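User: Can you predict the 3D structure for this chain?
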Amino acid sequence: MPLLSGGREAKSLIVGVLSKEFPLTAKQIYSKIAKNAPTSSLTYQAVHKALGQLAEQSVVGKDEKGGCLAPSLYLIPL
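Assistant: Here is the predicted structure, written as structure tokens:
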């Protein structure tokens, strides 16, 4: 299964936002997408669902507080 299949637009935009700035909450990610891609018709619900799918695929993860999302690579303890 391709990494960004199903909800491809939302997932691509999320990865794009997190590649520039992290950690961010789901609300902050949605706000940045709405600001940077005003022609996108994505809802907060679509962003939240895509974040859940990306977390299942280990693309993003939560920090120790459990409220912020970042690319999983940066959450691996050294």
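Confidence is low (pLDDT under 50) at residues 1-5. DSSP finds three helices and two strands in the chain.
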